[in-house]
Amino acid sequence: MVMNWLMKEDGLLSVSGLKVRLNNHLILDNVSFEVKKDDTLAIIGPNGAGKTVLFKALLGLLPYEGKITWSPDVKVGYVPQKLFIGKDVPLTVEEFLKFKEKSGEKIANALDQVGFKDNSHLLKSKLGVLSGGELQRVLIAFAILAGPNVLLFDEPTSGVDLSGEETVYALINRLQKEKDLAIIFISHELEVVSKYAANVLCLNKEKICFGPPKKVISKQSLEKLYGEDIHLYHHAGHHH
Amino acid sequence: MAFLIFVGALVGASSGFLGSFMVLKRMSLVGDALSHVALPGLALGLTLGINPMFGALAALTIAVLGIWYLGEKTEVYSEALVGVFFTASLAIGILITPEPELLEALFGNLGKIGYSDGLITIGAAAMIFLVTSRISQKLLLGVVSEDLARSTGVKMSTVNLVYLLLVGLVVALGVKFVGTLLTGALVIVPAAAAKNLAGSLRSYHWLSIFIGTISVVAGIFIAGFLGLPSGPIVVLFSILCFALSYAFKN
Fold first, then answer.
1. Residue B200 and residue A96: Cβ atoms within 8 Å?
2. Distance of alpha carbon B191 from alpha carbon B187, whole angstroms
3. b/e for A200-224, b at 16 or more Cβ within 10 A?
4. B159: closest CA among B138, B140, B145?
5. Sequential DSSP letters for chain B
6. Are B118 and B228 in contact (CB under 8 A)?
7. Which ipTM value was assigned to this complex?
8. Which of chain A's ends, N or C, has fewer CB atoms near its CB within 10 Å?
9. DSSP summary character for residue A126
10. A240 falls in which pLDDT band (50, 70, 90)?
């Protein structure tokens, strides 16, 4: 059945009965969902719900039980959660991006797409001295360099210091339209999820809900997802 | 003498190059601890009448496999366990090293470096530069983020193993020059000094190679001139470079 679904032109990813155990703890239990080629899927859930673990399983970085099937032509770009790179690490943005792509033209192009118009100074800067927003955009540029058709994005922060008016979500949204990408992102910010995601997967060890945000995000499903903390979450979300 | 200087320069250069990765990987103390493991292997080599360098290399290879296994298979990297294991091997090494050779095993002896050692060193240094250059991008991407590296298809586990084996090799090469107690310094100090000065990876690697080379060469000359053992002078010279780089940075 999984194969049949992926045979369809617009199928990108099919996950069925996914279980992940770490140190004998069941982190994900019987998670199933599907992603289409032009989808924007948000994964929400409380801390420790297994969101990042799900990403790692999707990337093949962790052992798992169950089935994860990507369409045969998939090319995944991964933007990891915040990285901590020391100011004294002698690695320039240019050297970092060249790990992935040697062509200076393609690098300039990717940087342009994430909003760095004049990038000669940036290229010579050390990765460790960038602001959080700049580093995030460099990581996005790294991810799109190889021409992916899906981006996995672990907790984009709607960066206060993302230069210009464009938020990281608006940037992802624009990239999706320009580059014909599917996006799967982890988020804590419910209003962002409602605004940008076509579908949402509520996760807390198991699948709590799945579907378009308007349909599945309800008081009941959120209570089930976050328990008593739901008000806190709403509150925090508005102030981000 | 010229041959000795040349071989020493190669040891300094390859230590500096490999060390530049070790410092970024925050494994400096592993480099130091590893050098202690060379001693029991060296002692066994002496006792069995084979080239002590091979004995040291064998012991280092076993230790490297142990470190690698701990790093890959356990959740928490067991620094304390590494420390315990390595001091144990130093203690055992001191006990089983034949008394007359103990001092040179600990601090090196240039007089004992023969042509065969030199040729082995030349071959090994060539291999170190070749292999390290091939895996350097993968290693460094792993420094930024192991997950990111693995998501682009890098087999981090294999890359780390190959790298650590090369470190074992370079420590074995350094043992005859500066001895088992100080060869770790040859891996760490030039790289640490280079990190203070470098603004890019390219300059970092070259500076580290340069400081490693100049430390060994200058150290051998100064030690010869003053009639002192070369090992400590080589290490002190590299530490002088570090101090200067630190002052320059601030």
1. no
2. 7
3. bbbbbbbbbbbeebeebbeeebbee
4. B138
5. -HHHHHHHHHHHHHHHHHHHHHHHTT-HHHHHHHHHHHHHHHHHHHHHTS-HHHHHHHHHHHHHHHHHHHHHH-SS--HHHHHHHHHHHHHHHHHHS-HHHHHHHHH--GGG--HHHHHHHHHHHHHHHHHHHHHHHHHHHHHH-HHHHHHTT--HHHHHHHHHHHHHHHHHHHHHHH-TTTHHHHHHHHHHHHHHH-SSHHHHHHHHHHHHHHHHHHHHHHHHHHT--HHHHHHHHHHHHHHHHHHHH-
6. no
7. 0.86
8. N
9. B
10. very low
**Residues B202, A91 contacting (CB under 8 angstroms):** no
Query: What is the predicted pLDDT for the residue at A4?
Result: 61
pLDDT over 70, % of chain B: 98
The conformation of residue A99, written as its DSSP 8-state character, comes to T
Residues in chain A with CB shorter than 8 Å from the CB of B152 are: 78, 100, 146
In the chain, the amino acid numbered A89 is V
pLDDT band at B78 (very low <50, low <70, confident <90, very high): low
Name residue, tokens 């034949």.
B98
Q: How many CA atoms lie within 13 A of B95 on its CB side?
A: 6
Each residue of A31-40: pLDDT tens digit?
999 999 889 9
The larger pLDDT score, comparing residue A145 to residue A156, is at A145
Tokens of A75: 């090319």
> Which residues of A are less than 8 Å from B150 in CB distance?
59, 61
Of A61, A83, A88, the CB nearest to B144: A83
pLDDT at B123: 96
Separation in Å, CA of B78 to nearest CA in chain A = 17
Question: Is the confidence at residue B104, as pLDDT, over 60?
Answer: yes
Instruction: For residue A161, give every residue at least 6 positions away whose Cβ sits within 8 Å of its Cβ, in sequence order, or none.
Output: A131, A132, A133, A134
Residue B155 distance to chain A (closest CA, Å): 10
Question: Which pLDDT score, from 0 to 100, does residue A158 have?
Answer: 55
Q: Which of A187, A213, A183 is nearest to A200 (CA)?
A: A213
Q: Which of A92, A53, A35 is nearest to A205 (CA)?
A: A53
Long-range contacts of B99-106 (CB under 8 A, 24+ apart): B101/B43, B101/B46, B104/B179, B105/B39, B105/B42, B105/B43, B105/B46, B105/B52, B105/B175, B105/B179, B105/B180, B106/B39, B106/B179, B106/B180, B106/B181
Of B144, B195, B199, the CB nearest to A96: B144
All structural domains of chain B: 2-249 (1.10.3470.10)
